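Handout for the seminar on molecular recognition.
Each group receives one record of this type.
Step one: identify the two inputs.
Step two: read the structure output and locate the region that could contact heme C.
Step three: write two sentences on what you found, then compare them with the reference statements printed after the record.
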Amino acid sequence: MLVTLHRGVLCKSSNLGADGFLNLLQDRGWRACARYTSGVRKFIAPLAFALPLALAGILTVFGHNGGTGLTWNREISRVFFRRCAECHRDGGPAFSLMTFAEVQPHLGEIKHQVLNRLMPPWGAVKGFGDFRNDQGLTQEEIELIVDWIEGDARRGNNANALPPIPKFAKPSSFSKPKGSLDVQGDLVLVRSFILDGLFPERLEDGSTARVVAHFPDSHVEPLIWFNQYNQRFQHPFLFRQAIELPVGTRISGIPRNSTLVLLPGKKPAPRK
Ligand code: HEC
């Protein structure tokens, strides 16, 4: 029941429809997605056909067990173990969110943090640059967590459904590789550079900066869009595929009082 809107915002198709229908959903607490829809009403008309289907879906879900059917033991623990536990555990940098009992007192905060993409802390806007170490939640994971919280946040009765407790490697510390290039302000490359990733060595808290590569052939490649940056969560951003920057490429958008390190990589394999 997912429908893709412009800019990759995903909404349940059930949340799209005439205003009256939106209000009905809002009454049911489905505000999360309805919020997104207000700005995209003009996209709604072509989607109207999805409505009857979606309604049937809702009736099925609510009709059967009076809730979402999602439980901590089955679905939600898996998302938390995968996405939160690395930090939110005993001995980690943040309070533990490993068990149902530990999660329960924080439900309101968790909903706020995941809906606003504040947790897990990533520091950049999704979809602007493509990163292989992106820890941000997918839209589906966000919906899963929020639906679970809004639908009674049940634990479930079957403890056997819980996944095994994950093991954690020691956090790897990052050091700049040889051949890294420190950049402040705009830069025009005087030699070609294979860009594997970016490391914000110095960037003020709360910074927003959109960094873009302008190729000599006037092609423009989005690199990264820092948003509400928080130094506390400093980490490298590694591209899914290294980007070849030819001589003469101009990199713009790095604030003057900041240092962004360009991390060198290997020549990418030709795309198939
Ligand atoms: C990279 C480490 C890391 C990851 C991954 C992470 N967190 Fe956090 N989180 C933190 C730290 C550090 C804090 C601050 C803790 C403190 O102040 O004691 C925090 C704080 C929070 C808070 C409280 C925020 C506030 O200010 O009220 C919530 C809620 C939260 N995290 C939920 C989550 C959830 C849910 C996930 C997974 C979907 C997650 N976090 C993933 C590190 C992380």
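Reference statements: The chain has three domains: 2-65, 72-161, 181-264. DSSP finds seven helices and ten strands in the chain.
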